Amino acid sequence: MAAESGRDEARERILRATLALIAAGGADAATTRAVAEAAGVQAPTIYRLFGDKRGLLDAAAAYAVDAYVTGKGARKPVADPVDDLRQGWDRHVAFGLANPGVFAVMRADAPSGAMSASLEAGERLLRDKVRRVARAGRLKVTEERAVTLMRATGIGIIEALLAQPAAVRDLELSALAREAVLAVITAQPTRSARAGAVGAANALRASLDDVTALSTGERALMNELPERIARG
Q1: The domain containing residue 176 runs over which residues?
Q2: Which whole-number Å values give the CA distances from 206 to 74, 98, 124, 167, in the listed order?
Q3: I need a surface site. Which of 70, 132, 142, 168 has the fewest CB within 10 A?
Q4: Chain segment 148-171, per-residue pLDDT in tens
Q5: Calpha distance 24→13 (Å, rounded)
Q6: What is the pTM of this model?
Q7: Are 100 and 162 contacting, i.e. CB atoms less than 8 angstroms apart?
Q8: HSE (CB half, 13 Å, CA atoms) of 195?
């Protein structure tokens, strides 16, 4: 037990040291030697815990994202699901801008298609927020399309803003992109402006998890038909 506790303590020191080095000089600054010195451990300890530098960077990024996701998930959703989605966008962009080194590490992993557990948790939070919009009958596209559009546009905006000098960074770009995406995927809550048949179909599909009276086959059918309506 004591050995396990010591290992966990060393792991956390290493991760914190890695993030500090990434923040100061990017991923290139987080060499194994620099991390070992900053964390007060021997290099073999890093290799034993993380395998190699890529594993160390991945774990450090996951550590940072875990803290972000935990804080984000602990927030109580606002009453309006679209406003909740809007605030989630703003927090996501703020995280990327505040942690450019971590964001770069996360993006470096993107081509492999692998997603860390913490990134999956963040994805689930986005999906939950989109589903709230669907349940309210205010989603004009499928949930999958809404999630993909929100995620891709958000990443693009963070990259564009990070490419600008911080002193002249055009933060209004984020708000403009956010509202453009929301205009495409959501409808206003008034009766006349609801998303019509598509909104009703999305609301039904989003609510199927609460239905217990359907068989597996019936559930599959009830899931397929609203999706076809939404896509059509």
Answers
A1: 77-231
A2: 22, 34, 14, 43
A3: 168
A4: 999 999 999 999 999 999 999 999
A5: 17
A6: 0.73
A7: yes
A8: 26
